[in-house]
Structures are given as structure tokens and as C-alpha cells.
Specification:
With about 150 residues, the chain is of the alpha/beta class. It is built from 6 helices and 4 strands.
Length: about 150
């Protein structure tokens, strides 16, 4: 009987890939990495601006989380060249206004676009369909050479 020698790192990587395959995560992981790399290559903003934009969005989420877990759950922040887009669905106008008021306190934010909708919350199925559609559209836009990101 022959014994094979596998370095620990090889076994560890194989276990990770096997478990990810069982969970169905390999394809999204590979696709996400490819899209992310393509985005960095075609992005018009500098790496420094990308970092500033990411920091502004993270700060908005922190302000919302500090004020209310509901705000952090229901609102999303997207930034581009220091401008902040707030989206989501909240149950009342007061929460919409609070989200914008907190975002205005963030140093370095340019314009704020408050596109938050007031209405009943969505359910998991609706969210999953929306996320799938958004990601499919993003992938198509990123792959289209006629569209500049």
C-alpha cells in the first residue's frame, strides 16, 4: 500500500473549495472576483477616490446603525465622487428624513440624493428577486464595452 503526502496547505485549500462547492459559493465567488477586477481596470475614479467613496458609505451606515438598527437595516448608501445616494424602503417619513439628516453630518459628503421610498417593508422573496435582477443588470453593464463605468 502506498501513502501519499499532501502538504497541509493543499489539504486546507481542497477542503475550502469542497465546502464552498457544496454551498454553491464557488461560481459567485469567481464571478464576483472577475467583475471586481474588470471594474478596477475600467474605473474612471482613482484608487484614492474609490477609498474615499467607500469610507463615506461606511460612515453613513455607521451613523444609521448608531441611531437605529432599523435605519441601518432599511437604508443603503452608494457614493460616487463624494456624492451620496441613499436608497431603501422605510415605514415613515420621519425615518427617511432622519437618514438624510444623519448623512448630512458626514464630513466630506458633497450632494445627497435621497431616493428612499416610504412604504411597507419587502419580504425575503422580493429582496432576493431584486438582488438577482440588480446583479444581472450590473454584470451586463460591466461587460458592455459601450458603457463606461
Amino acid at each position: 500500500m502506498t501513502e501519499r503526502f499532501f502538504p497541509r496547505a493543499t489539504v486546507f485549500v481542497a477542503m475550502i473549495l469542497a465546502s464552498a462547492t457544496l454551498a454553491g459559493c464557488v461560481v459567485p465567488l469567481v464571478a464576483g472576483t472577475a467583475v471586481g477586477g474588470y471594474t478596477l481596470l475600467t474605473e474612471q475614479r482613482s484608487p484614492e477616490q474609490l477609498a474615499r467613496d467607500a469610507a463615506l458609505a461606511a460612515t453613513a451606515h455607521k451613523y444609521w446603525a448608531d441611531a437605529s438598527i432599523d435605519l441601518a437595516r432599511d437604508l443603503s448608501a452608494t457614493t460616487y465622487d463624494n456624492d451620496l445616494l441613499i436608497t431603501g424602503i422605510v415605514p415613515n417619513q420621519q425615518m427617511k428624513d432622519t437618514g438624510e439628516r444623519l448623512a448630512r453630518q458626514i464630513q466630506g459628503v458633497g450632494r445627497i440624493y435621497n431616493e428612499v421610498q416610504v412604504g411597507p417593508p419587502t419580504n425575503f422573496g422580493q429582496d432576493a428577486r431584486d438582488n438577482y435582477s440588480s446583479n444581472a443588470l450590473r454584470a451586463q453593464l460591466l461587460a458592455d464595452s459601450q458603457v463606461r463605468s
